[in-house]
Specification:
It holds the Pfam family GFO_IDH_MocA. The chain has about 325 residues and is an alpha/beta fold. Strands 14-13-12-11-7-10-9-8-15 form a nine-stranded mixed beta sheet. It has a six-stranded parallel beta sheet with strand order 3-2-1-4-5-6, with helices on both faces. Strand 9 and strand 10 form a beta hairpin. The chain is globular, with a radius of gyration of 20 Å.
Length: about 325
């Protein structure tokens, strides 16, 4: 029996772990921790396992094989390091942490313990993404030349807790919203060149609604180069409140032979090549967001979203945030 614990519950993505426990007889939820009573009530009210105020209290009381990290963003690094030192693999909601110093502490703990750290980049497993990968693998688009993505989200400010609008606990927008697309660009570029990509990143942020949330940047524009693949990524908390989707992530992948446009919100992959007019690529079924992780660890294997990939995407996102704070200064990764 694999023992699972939740360390921090400040986001609905705690359901990633709960869904797997419900689906698999090999998993047991042994405990959860969250110091905030309101967050406990909101996200852990259905949990019958023991509840603790801190990850340290939980880890002292229970043996844990897998820890889901989903607390307040600035608190996640401490919980991650504690879990790793206790011998647990870490499955993390994004962002993993809010500073490069925190990231280095996580990197060191993961290296010393040999435990996995995997961020749930669930967009990798959406049907449209899997179909895009098949097209690329089959050579339909040719070698990837460039990528452009966009990610407007509704802020829904009246529903946001105070910590979310505070840079001290939220971090910054560049370290949060763009990271799914950063991961995809890194992964696609890495597959194309057959090695972990290196490159550069720069970013600019701004606060279009400063009168509503002073100090909380609500949009970011990011330019990165992963290996030989340049990418532009923009994301924001300016999504219209009347929109019928909360987050409208889209990505255009341009190859030497054609272009594919992914619209994740509306479950579409639209493709055009030099030899074929525009078509909608058929999509297959979805999988649960954390399914990949437990499939792997239960089989004694490394998850497909590896520790290396999780830490690299986090590094690029945090360096984008550092770039924005330095007026767009170029950062190496």
């Amino acid at each position: 029996m694999m023992k699972v614990a939740i360390l921090g519950a400040a986001h609905p993505h705690v359901d990633y772990a709960l869904a797997e426990v419900a689906q698999r007889d090999e998993l047991e939820l042994v405990a959860a921790s969250e110091p905030d009573p309101q967050l406990r009530e909101k996200f852990l009210s259905g949990v019958s396992a023991p509840l603790y105020d801190t990850p340290q209290q939980l880890l002292e009381a229970h043996d844990v094989d897998v820890a889901l990290i989903a607390g307040i963003y600035s608190h996640r690094a401490e919980a991650t390091v504690a879990a790793l030192r206790a011998g647990a693999h870490v499955l993390a909601d994004k962002p993993l942490c809010t500073s490069l110093e925190q990231l280095e502490a996580i990197r060191e703990a993961a290296s010393k313990t040999g435990r996995h750290v995997s961020i749930v980049f669930e967009k990798r497993f959406y049907p449209a993404t899997l179909a895009l990968r098949r097209l690329i693998a089959d050579g339909v688009l040719g070698p990837i030349a460039m990528v452009a993505s966009t990610g407007p989200h509704k802020l829904n400010q009246p529903t946001r807790p105070a910590w979310f609008l505070d840079p001290a606990t939220y971090g910054g927008i560049a370290g949060d919203l763009p990271i799914h697309d950063i991961d995809l660009v890194l992964d696609l570029a890495g597959e194309q060149q057959g090695a972990r990509p290196t490159g550069t990143v720069s970013a600019h942020v701004g606060n279009a609604r400063a009168e509503d949330h002073p100090g909380f940047d609500d949009h970011v524009a990011l330019l990165m180069r992963a290996g030989q693949v340049p990418a532009t990524i923009e994301a924001n908390w300016l999504g219209p409140e009347a929109a019928d989707v909360h987050g409208h992530y889209r990505m255009r992948v341009t190859g030497s032979l054609g272009t594919a446009e992914v619209d994740w919100a509306y479950h579409r992959l639209t493709v055009t090549t030099h030899s074929r007019e525009t078509w909608d690529e058929p999509l297959e079924g979805a999988q649960r967001p954390a399914q990949y992780f437990f499939d792997a660890v239960l089989a004694g294997q490394e998850p497909v979203i590896t520790t290396s990939a999780s830490l690299l995407a986090t590094e690029v996102a945090l360096k984008a945030q550092r770039s924005a704070e330095a007026g767009g200064a170029l950062q190496q990764f």
